[in-house]
Amino acid sequence: MNLESIDWESLERMRAAFLSGTAGAQDYWHNDSELAAYDATFAQRIGWKWDYVLEELKARGWSPPAGDILDWGCGSGVAGRAFLNHFGMNEVSALRLLDRSTLARAFAAKRAREKFPGLKVVEETQRADSEISTPPGILLISHVLTEMTQEQTAALVSAATSAECVIWVEPGTYETSLTLIAIRERLRTIFNIIAPCTHQERCGILSPENERHWCHHFASPPQEVFMDGDWAKFGNMLGIDLRDLPLSFLVLDRRTAPAVSPCAGRVIGHARLYKAHALLLGCDASGVSDRRLMKRLHANEFRALKKDISPALREWECREGEIVRTKPLVANERLD
Asked: What is the pLDDT of residue 334?
């Protein structure tokens, strides 16, 4: 980050709109300088969430279909660039950018052309709320739910059914998580569920006993961020915790989902650590419930949980709520 080029006043204004829920009322970029400031700061944090999701997809053996990409509500274009960084552009016929802001579309297109020479980049005009003019192969949606009405969200969900696959990333709040879960349930008869779930069943969060829970996960910034004085100033000035990045996400595909073990599950949120055990809110085909991991039986895994380096995706065998065997779902080495 280059502090000299940052428009701090515009960042503070944007931050206030994001927190108050008023960002959807009108465009919050007025010029390229504000877009550049956003792209260097807030958009980078969103990009790290996309890195988390896309790295998981690759680790789970998922690969995108050939065809075009539509970055819906593209903003400064970080989602499309992250996708191309991870999967390349060999199978991509075009990157389509759609946003209500003409400035944002132009900025995103310029950045994409600079980073990926030879890529066909198309700026699209949104003619109606949540409209998609041409069905995309890959639909990317990022951080839009907090800026949309229920009617606009419903229209976008309907439009998303035309895509081959959908990758949708949102903030990891209770409200956005439950909205994504509702979207999952609406679309799981049309698409296969790829992630975050390890199964195709009804979401276990919807069981009455899980009303207080929500499906959220944590991405981590690159380590160099914590040694960068400019990022420290950004965090201090805007009151932003630079550590964990909570997110909720949903990945859907018309194609068959990569095979996973019938014992596959996922840890939701952070583990709760106690002296002799840890409680993991676990999700698998049987539902969502706490799983107890005993320190004396799984010392290595318990240490990994304390260091916050334990993979969320796991294979496990549980008896009466206690984990008796476990290993990372996509790693080669057991931790227990």
From this structure: 39
Residue at token pair 């280059």: 2
In a shared domain, residues 78 and 113: yes
**Token duo for residue 34:** 């504000």
pLDDT at 82 over 60: yes
C-alpha atoms less than 13 angstroms from C-alpha of 74 in its C-beta half-sphere: 33
At residue 77, the pLDDT reads 97
DSSP symbols for 4-61: GG--HHHHHHHHHHHHHT-GGGS----SHHHHHHHHHTHHHHHHHHHHHHHHHHHHTT
Beta strand ranges found along 200-305 (DSSP E): 217-219, 245-253, 264-267, 272-273, 277-284, 287-294
Distance CA 291, CA 146 (A): 32
Sign for the CA dihedral angle at 244, 138, 80, 60 comes to positive
**What span, in angstroms and rounded, lies between the C-alpha atoms of 121 and 100?**
17
Q: ∠ at Cα 247 (110, 152), nearest 5°?
A: 70
Tell me, yes or no, whether 155 and 304 share the same domain.
no
What is the reported pLDDT for 163?
96
3-state secondary structure of 286: coil
Which residue in 261, 24, 39, 53 sits closest to 140, CA to CA?
A: 53
Measured CA to CA, the distance from residue 154 to residue 30 in angstroms comes to: 28
Q: Which amino acid is at 186?
A: R
Q: Does 295 map to a domain?
A: yes
Rounded Cα distance between 33 and 7, Å, is 7
Q: Is 146 in contact with 21 (CB distance < 8 Å)?
A: yes
Residues near 46 by Cβ (< 8 Å), separated by ≥ 6?
Answer: 78, 79, 142, 143, 169
- Let me know whether 168 and 286 are in one domain: no
Q: What is the largest CA-CA distance in the chain?
A: 61
317-329 residue pLDDT tens: 999 999 999 999 9
- At residue 98, the pLDDT reads 95
What CATH number is associated with residue 136? 3.40.50.150
